[in-house]
Automatic annotation (TrEMBL):
Recorded superkingdom: Bacteria
Descriptive protein name: DUF4281 domain-containing protein
Pfam families: ABA4-like
InterPro entries assigned: ABA4-like (IPR025461)
Gene source species: Emticicia aquatilis
TM segment ranges: 6-24, 33-51, 77-97, 109-131
Keyword Transmembrane helix among record annotations: yes
Keyword line: Membrane, Transmembrane, Transmembrane helix
């Protein structure tokens, strides 16, 4: 399987994880499927892609912007980087769902942050942090 096919698989398959978080966030199996299914699978694929071309990796590969750009000239490295993003953004999405439930934040408010987390990672977490902070302030005001 080449890097392009693996990339396409990741883009298509990850949608199911996000739909699970949005449609069934409170289902008892959602967190397990996300953490022990999707993210574990993406971790295995990521590891395969990294180990496949580990010979091209140098200790200073991440030390400068130019070195990082050079590292990502390889299709396997780009695909691996993409799987890194997909896995960690989904992990953050699962965290948002868990934390929202724990803090009794409305499912709808938490869901607002999920598309941003899927598309823009840290921006989605920032939106959730703002929602969480507003919830905390409003809870303190009512006591």
């Amino acid at each position: 399987m080449n890097a392009s096919s693996i990339f396409q698989f990741g883009n298509s398959f990850i949608i199911f994880g996000w739909l699970l978080l949005i449609i069934a966030p409170n289902w008892k199996h959602t967190q397990s499927i996300i953490l022990n299914g999707f993210i574990l699978l993406f971790s295995v694929i990521y590891t395969f892609l990294i180990l496949k071309d580990i010979g091209d990796f140098k200790a200073d590969s991440f030390s400068t912007l130019a070195n990082v750009k050079a590292l990502f000239q390889n299709d396997n490295a780009v695909a691996a980087g993409w799987f890194h993003y997909l896995a960690f953004d989904l992990f953050v999405g699962a965290y948002i769902v868990r934390k929202a439930k724990e803090l009794q934040i409305s499912r709808w408010w938490a869901t607002l942050a999920l598309p941003f987390t899927f598309m823009f990672g840290p921006m989605g977490y920032l939106i959730f942090f703002i929602i969480k902070t507003i919830k905390s302030i409003s809870n303190n005001d009512t006591h």
